[in-house]
Protein 1
Amino acid sequence: MATSQEHIIRLEIPSEIQLIYVLDAVVSEILREMEFDDEAVEQANLAVIEAGTNAILHGNSSDPNKRVYFQFLVGEDKLTVIVKDEGEGFNPDLVPNPLDLENLLSTSGRGIFLMRTFMDEVNYSENGTKVQMVKYKFNENK
Amino acid sequence: MATSQEHIIRLEIPSEIQLIYVLDAVVSEILREMEFDDEAVEQANLAVIEAGTNAILHGNSSDPNKRVYFQFLVGEDKLTVIVKDEGEGFNPDLVPNPLDLENLLSTSGRGIFLMRTFMDEVNYSENGTKVQMVKYKFNENK
Amino acid sequence: MDVSIRERDGVTIFDIQGRIIGSDSLELKSVIDDHIASKAEGEVKILLNLARVPMMDSSGLGVVVAAYTSVQRKKGRIALLNLGRSTRQLIVMAKLMTIFETYDNEDEAVASFQ
Amino acid sequence: MDVSIRERDGVTIFDIQGRIIGSDSLELKSVIDDHIASKAEGEVKILLNLARVPMMDSSGLGVVVAAYTSVQRKKGRIALLNLGRSTRQLIVMAKLMTIFETYDNEDEAVASFQ
Ligand SMILES: Nc1ncnc2c1ncn2[C@@H]1O[C@H](COP(=O)(O)OP(=O)(O)O)[C@@H](O)[C@H]1O
Ligand SMILES: Nc1ncnc2c1ncn2[C@@H]1O[C@H](COP(=O)(O)OP(=O)(O)O)[C@@H](O)[C@H]1O
């Protein structure tokens, strides 16, 4: 038996917001298996839900013919999550800061901020249609 | 928005028996979303776990470099589950009947029997490396 | 997610149970909006009991913010009861802790409305 | 899945909690095997309490069958307590209902061993 370099789980769903519960179930279970502590589980779980929600609602505009692709790379000390949609993309640098005073009482616009707050790395690519996030198991810097 | 003919969810895992919990989470959530009744949920869930376990242990011999592919086709009135492994295959017709007296106290050999018992359709193809199972929501025949 | 509503001394308590993620926020929003719409100006007194909400996403938080704004507009009052670790963290991170009134004790929270 | 073990009037009760699927069966098997190995012939008295097992797969059922066979070999006795709908259905389908002793009441089950 060759040693497996990567332990990859893939999930692919149509763009229906109800399927966030399926995503949630997968992520929760992976994080539990990886024995992240409870707080890290909640944080990573939330970040993945935010990314998945954005891919469904903003990326794919809830078009059920467009799909969202999730990859979970399970490592010894970290989980990498990649979320890819089939939308037009966007420029994440132009998203307003939800902590600015004029945005504090906005009813939306906190998803990417929470992803950046709760994950150790968040990188957009492919014109904003793909986001890669990393959560480390023992993060001494936080 | 074009009408989506099929509502397909895909899951792909390496051959690690611990990942049955991820499979379980996905199936449970899909069945719950589909509003199957509790008994049907348990039955379909069990059948999928049996098929997944077989793919991991028998099909792929727990080789983590081999993968198992799940497809869930969510219909109005039925769920179709396809499980595909990367193993050598087998002949399902040659599997002994676990209800035969000499097998009653066997410690294994009931997986396929339970799949056939709890799903409405079970069909093996591709030399036994692929199994397709259907569970209907309102099955008047059962 | 499930929401049930009860009244105590003129305060309407929304007992929410379960994670508020995905489309739960739409459901929660409509329950809260309907309630606010049914009340006259100055008469809205809402307590959102989050004791049994282990987690909430940004759309859930958006609903709480929207509720806050609607209630303000109607010259009513809204407060949050029993934030858990995760929901508290979310609100702290979003810098909303100083904006929302929060309580850890239902009697106290209800009394504050009198 | 979690297993805890307690003794009552010389009967060893295994309280199992959670679904028995996937690798749970290996864990359960080793707990039961260790217990049986620790007992002398004729002294094994086991009650598997399945009250909090909402579901069990064929490998879980295989462990119960293996336990039955080991206990028989050691001239002991094993019974199942509090089968739920799902575990009962599994055992019925596998035509094992007439082979296993089953009880729905712990006092009765324990008394039966005396
Ligand atoms: N995958 C995506 N595709 C296209 N646009 C996106 C995507 N993700 C985010 N956006 C854009 O970035 C904005 C901010 O997203 P976010 O911080 O998650 O807040 P919200 O989703 O509440 O608007 C969104 O309103 C949307 O315009
Ligand atoms: N995906 C598969 N690939 C190869 N062989 C399989 C597969 N599924 C089942 N089998 C064979 O069929 C037998 C019976 O399977 P099953 O009824 O599930 O019982 P068990 O898994 O307990 O042996 C297995 O022991 C194995 O030899």
Note: The interface with chain B takes residues 1-2, 4, 7-14, 16, 18-19, 21-22, 24-26, 28-30, 32-33, 62-65 of chain A (CB under 8 Å).
Protein 2
Amino acid sequence: MSAEANTLTAKDFTSDQDVRWCPGCGDYSILKQVQTVLPEIGIERENVVFISGIGCSSRFPYYLDTYGMHGIHGRAPAISSGLKIANPDLSVWVITGDGDGLSIGGNHLIHMLRRNFDMNVLLFNNEIYGLTKGQYSPTSPEGKVTKSTPMGSVDHPFNPLALAAGADGTFIARSMDRDPKHMREILKEANLHKGTSLIEIYQNCNVFNDGAFGVFTDKKTKAETTIFLEHGKPCVFGENDSKGLMLDGANPVIVDLESGEYSVNDLWVHDKHDRFKSGVLMRCFDTPMPDREVLPRPFGIFYQEDRPCYEDLLHEQIAVSINRKGEGDLDALLRGKNTWEIA
Amino acid sequence: MSAEANTLTAKDFTSDQDVRWCPGCGDYSILKQVQTVLPEIGIERENVVFISGIGCSSRFPYYLDTYGMHGIHGRAPAISSGLKIANPDLSVWVITGDGDGLSIGGNHLIHMLRRNFDMNVLLFNNEIYGLTKGQYSPTSPEGKVTKSTPMGSVDHPFNPLALAAGADGTFIARSMDRDPKHMREILKEANLHKGTSLIEIYQNCNVFNDGAFGVFTDKKTKAETTIFLEHGKPCVFGENDSKGLMLDGANPVIVDLESGEYSVNDLWVHDKHDRFKSGVLMRCFDTPMPDREVLPRPFGIFYQEDRPCYEDLLHEQIAVSINRKGEGDLDALLRGKNTWEIA
Amino acid sequence: MEKTKSPETVRMNEERRDVTILFAGDSGDGIQLTGSQFTNTSALFGNDISTFPNYPAEIRAPQGTIAGVSGFQLNFGSVEIFTPGDMCDVLVVMNAAALKANLNRLKIGGTVIANTAGFDKKNLTLAGYIDGNNPLENNSLGKYRLIEIDITKLTREALKETPLGIKEKDRSKNMFVLGFLYWMYNRKLGPTEDFIRDKFAKAPELIASNLAVLKAGYNYGDTSETFTTRYEVKPAPLPKGVYRNIMGNQAVAIGLIAASRKAGLPLFYGSYPITPASDILHELARHKNFDVRSFQAEDEIAAITSAIGSSFAGNIGITASSGPGIALKGEALGLACILELPLVIVNVQRGGPSTGLPTKTEQADLMQALYGRNGEAPIPVLAPASPRDCFEMAYEAVRIAVEHMTPVFLLSDGYIANGAEPWRFPVSADLTPIKPPLRKSAGGEAYMPYARDGKGVREWVVPGLKGMEHRIGGLEKEDITGNISYDPENHQKMTLLRAEKVRRIADFIPEQALDRGSPDAELCILSWGSTYGAVKTAVKEMIEEGYSVAHIHVKYLNPFPKNLGDLLRGFRRVMVPELNHGQLVKIIRSEFLIDARPLTKIKGLPFTASEVKEAAVNTLEA
Amino acid sequence: MEKTKSPETVRMNEERRDVTILFAGDSGDGIQLTGSQFTNTSALFGNDISTFPNYPAEIRAPQGTIAGVSGFQLNFGSVEIFTPGDMCDVLVVMNAAALKANLNRLKIGGTVIANTAGFDKKNLTLAGYIDGNNPLENNSLGKYRLIEIDITKLTREALKETPLGIKEKDRSKNMFVLGFLYWMYNRKLGPTEDFIRDKFAKAPELIASNLAVLKAGYNYGDTSETFTTRYEVKPAPLPKGVYRNIMGNQAVAIGLIAASRKAGLPLFYGSYPITPASDILHELARHKNFDVRSFQAEDEIAAITSAIGSSFAGNIGITASSGPGIALKGEALGLACILELPLVIVNVQRGGPSTGLPTKTEQADLMQALYGRNGEAPIPVLAPASPRDCFEMAYEAVRIAVEHMTPVFLLSDGYIANGAEPWRFPVSADLTPIKPPLRKSAGGEAYMPYARDGKGVREWVVPGLKGMEHRIGGLEKEDITGNISYDPENHQKMTLLRAEKVRRIADFIPEQALDRGSPDAELCILSWGSTYGAVKTAVKEMIEEGYSVAHIHVKYLNPFPKNLGDLLRGFRRVMVPELNHGQLVKIIRSEFLIDARPLTKIKGLPFTASEVKEAAVNTLEA
Ligand SMILES: Cc1ncc(C[n+]2csc(CCOP(=O)(O)OP(=O)(O)O)c2C)c(N)n1
Ligand SMILES: Cc1ncc(C[n+]2csc(CCOP(=O)(O)OP(=O)(O)O)c2C)c(N)n1
Ligand code: SF4
Ligand code: SF4
Ligand SMILES: [Mg+2]
Ligand SMILES: [Mg+2]
């Protein structure tokens, strides 16, 4: 961390381009948090690269005064993989949407996760195709009526975190546009994680899918419908932390902490290194309905694991190879093993 | 099931084309089992369609006297999706390899799984690219030396079943080329399952990756290194069923049934409808090494769930639409809502 | 108080042959709706019409800025209309940015109708009028007739009795403009009133408010003493018949459905959203009762390959996209080509390369359609000339795909996709029959998947037919049997057979007609696709002015109509206007060894008739 | 006992100018290895050489069948050699299928060397000799000299003392053939002996056995009294210098590495395996000590986009594939084009369309290279003429990509990729310098990403450089600043600037030379890519025979060398031989309005010189 980087502010990370999202779009908040966090992290601007695909969210790189590329639809993870191999010292941030990252780009995303490049992926999930004006996406709930599904979608949606876990992602988290503080914390943790950090961010598209996450983000309902995970801490939630989660076998159950029957000490303690328990949390995915109680939707870091990064292993092989064979000798390569002379 | 179909034999499902795999290739056994199972299932030949991508394995459809298409690399799931929508009555079998289905075709595979078309997917996993003569694949173990990785692969491989579970697959199973009986059983179960049935089949490529699964398939080691799952049955394995699995929290542990300390009644009973426990089994994925004992590799049906199929929901919407609006009236469509006459 | 400048231009009840109006405002101002309402009403009245919507790339670009300006241009007349008009007679601007962005499209002497509320300090600054220099006030519009109305204020006043909030009230200010223009052009409010009632069926308070504002706009014209002139644009002498208004993408969708019905094949539509093609998906998804199976795939590759799968199973597989998405389909196009299955690929072209100018029009994907895949993989290419022609060419695309067992490209573009014109729609019974070479029952000789009929077309057997089981694939196949074959002679034979099959389609399409002019004119203007209207207008005018010029418009780009070469050789010069850097012209030169010259425009905008005319006159007078 | 038929053809120590041998056998017979050993030994001896391996599509096609036959043809001589030879002098067949598949390639009077063990009943049946009719015995080979050897038996005998199993013994029977041919052509065993020692370093028993069999084959010739004739093919009068043998794909890999070193840029290679391009990946992956970063991506789209990402970060991004994989890269090519980043795309062409003939050669992807993407996205296209030329053109591709900030296509094909020839390799110091327009340090004026130098090339600034932060993307960009711009005039300007930049590359490539013949000959044969050798041979012979013919070989296909049009206009006729249905010929006709005529072959095989000659003679005598 350079001394100078320390003194930068969010403004230094703001480019001169007009931000062109719809007024009220959740993207603004994400941009703000990223611009706030970057100077705190202390990486020099010139060493930061934002790579995106196509979508409303993918305009993101234009608004940051760092290096950036607005790529093509779905390919940001692949572009970034090449970039990271080319220069492992860069701090690489991938910006993608639920269509960009999970529909057309799903394959690159899962391959990036298994290879575990040291990058941060911000998946803006608004459960809709914003830029193309409102078709359903792979995260839209079943039955969703959109321009392309006038009778409701018949696609069973992805659970993006479960998918990432299935692809052996090493850092899997969720946050939301409406909770700036939480988002900033998660962004910082993601940056610290060595490996591919995937953050799904619930983002409101107020034009084509307004209120998709209202039940989780609205002050009125948030306490009851969400649970904020902290590593090593018991799983409490609810108004005044009045509720908690316990595990009955592999089934999470809600317990009331006010009745006196259970105390915080009885609760499930979140362990982000436990693959199976974090998997159970990822599957807490039912949508709250007025008529039935469901498990709260978890936010925070579900899972984290240390595993070598692709670019490091690759550069290690290069180093070993140079060590063994010496720096490549171009003339020896041109000459090959068998030559003859014509005099 | 037609009376005639009943009387068909494997030979009736054999096409007139010479089979062109390398002598000794594991693909032969899979072909044999499929040709044996098809007449038992009792679907008429004309209602069976095999769709494949590109790879050694993808030559499969040519050898069956059913309808078939040898598609392009990685796209069999997408071709099949269209086909199944076009005619939901067909029995559709997707043939793919670890490169075809998990590398270039990974995205189509996961989207097919979430949409849950009623199809059977046979993923021939030989942990190598056969047809292109021996590059590593997304399932090759780390460190694998191949033509494209002379210093060993630095890719962390996919766990195909965990990936399928992450994509909300509704039927997830594993079998092997060297256990014909088991394969036939699983094929039949897959056929019975209404939804996308994914069967990973360990298949030996004796030319480019000989013995990749030897430790699981060889008579000498098989009993100790594998466990065959049966729904509702305790998890026993080992020579003379001398061992079993128990669950310690989410951790499977091996217990000895001969010492007298544990009996079959203490064992973990496999429940293919339990998402979390089946997930634990999918993660039993360590490679046996001479120097350390690891959990046995499970075979059988890991997980099964009933969920509506895409094609049924789509055709239901068509039916509802016809019901509501009547069969489309072409002249009404041409005319639209606002017309005027010029006389 | 509103005032009318240059009162000397004010006259009463004037008659006009044709009028071009450009509605412009913020993307939130309801410009597209206003434009299409005026279009419908004029169409119903009997005018000929052509329209050109032009909206910004962002969903909601920053309010008040130039980037956020949305436009809708329409040309309507008592004469035949072929384009949305080069320059406007009337420019309606809802704010300062709209004026700034579009003033250069207004004819000298034309009318500006300005919403003065959109010219406050903030709006002026956002639009880049420095120091708040208000163009409405500094005489910079001296060459035009200026009508200033505080539309915002008048709209709010019209609604002051309603319980609506300010924001909701302001949302109907486009109805005020519409009402005012209806008054100005002597139009009835009826059709728009019906539309309002239908659209807001679930919100009666909005019906009331919109109707009120619409009337307020009309009455404002009627009662305000300053507006003494109304214009009359009589119905056009269009051929007798029943008409409707139609947009290009809608016409494609309807054409596809009609063809699928006439062919007796369910329509499978595999696609992935992309501007400006998505509306075809939206339209098709609404017609499930025509047994339309629309499948929003995970990407363009899945879109086309699922369509191929559906064709294998006996549907007519269709896929559509725009340039970048079409690029992704190249590999699968080769598969469809070698399988010899029917498939229609619609490309609604937009500005490229890469993501380019997603909301702008271009014709730069012709070469991609002809050659954008590996190996020798010939695919027929058709291009509609106008919004209504999209119906006919979509229908033709299905007909050729099915009857000749081949993928077929349909090259539309953003301009005709979103443009509209009156359409004398056909009766279904009159549509050309489509006869799929579909084997309906088994029996007879063994099925040879790649045996061919006299046209070079193979028979289509669909899974489910007993005794006809067969396998097809992307490897080269033996003639007749379709078995894999690596035989050198066979490969050459099959390559030539596939080429010949496509070439022979020329026997089943109309011969090329001369659109206008004499077959031995000095100059032939050869157009394709959406440039039709501009070229037609230019040639019409030039012939009237005595120039020796002719117009040929090609809708079948591969194979060409058989007589095209002979026709072209009759002219001394050939000019090919295209919205690209010269693509068809390359083919024409190569194919016919004619020194055809390009006229190119790569601005994301259609040609104006005068651009074409100017270039043609220059050529003739050079 | 082995016997030699037609003993009248047997003479002693004959000298030959050039000889073509075709080794053929089952794909498990080690044919490719035998061929390449003979090639290396002959090259080391000083012959000029050209080779053509031809293997089946299956990894191991069914043993003994025609489909399973693998072939390796080589032409070596004391004269300059340009092709692997049209017809063979010697045909070595390890089994009946190999004879059946290749007899038509043997000259009348040529020699068949047959392994009699491969002509047992089973083999005869598998090869389709009906009723076990043995061609070695029924006098059907009367027109040829037949040498029958029971190679299998003799190999086993040579190894009878070793502990190896039968299977392992049989595996070295190719060494017997090789030894025998070394005797026949007076070659030393040394190079192959070294090779054996190296290859089996870890299995000493295999070194011993292979050496033993090799010698046994040699001695068999020497001692067997029937073989009294040996041939001599003297070294060729090649230019002085040090030579090595090189294959096309290997030359591409080495060329790329050399260029990356000379440009001072790490080489990033993003690719996905595909025949016949994979060997480039295999070769590059071996050279990590040259700072080569090879990345086997999940698919071709990831391969090219990762390469684009690496170029953004200052590597030279390279990607390679064959037709179907290239088709998938179209969209990303547009991105590279509009970003104006360096990138090299290698297409090792194979038979199409679709999966086509994966192991066969073709030149049918030229149009795809020129036009296979959306919008106006011009990309330079180069094509090597021969295996060794792959080095030069790969180097050129990097040079142009880097110095002109553009993606560049390199069109190789299966024929030159796997063919080999002697190469007088350069010294690294003599290689053309490559100067990337790379900003190394910040400071000075603000960085304008799309400002251009005199060549129309923008400056390359790479992340990590302080104060030069900038964003690039696939939307149209404003001239100079690179900011997003939807301005119509700007789009036209940028489109033209990008086209102009590519056009101006013509100033930085060599002018087109005449390969042979007079500039006003009656007929010019215009070739590109791998047809070079066949055309060169044909033209040489024709000129020697007095025909008025000339040869131009184009290696720069976009832009063309500046003088190409003028050169071509000097001939009365132009013929363009291509392994496709006529692609370059279309461009030539369109560009220069010359009535160039195609000569096409679409059989998955290269032209023979006589095919070209025959067509040329027919044209001249027509
Ligand atoms: C190859 C290609 N296909 C389709 C498109 C059109 N397209 C642009 S963005 C987008 C989806 C946007 O959805 P998402 O990724 O969720 O981003 P959002 O706009 O919601 O932020 C689509 C389909 C494209 N640009 N390129
Ligand atoms: C678009 C495209 N890219 C690459 C290839 C080359 N290719 C053919 S099969 C294959 C991989 C085969 O591996 P796998 O799917 O595991 O099948 P296997 O041969 O092992 O059965 C590849 C890379 C191709 N045919 N098409
Ligand atoms: S369309 Fe939705 S996601 Fe896109 S900018 Fe507008 S509000 Fe945001
Ligand atoms: S290469 Fe391997 S997978 Fe392919 S046919 Fe041969 S043994 Fe089977
Ligand atoms: Mg979205
Ligand atoms: Mg494999």
Note: Residues 204-223 of chain D form the longest helix (20 residues).
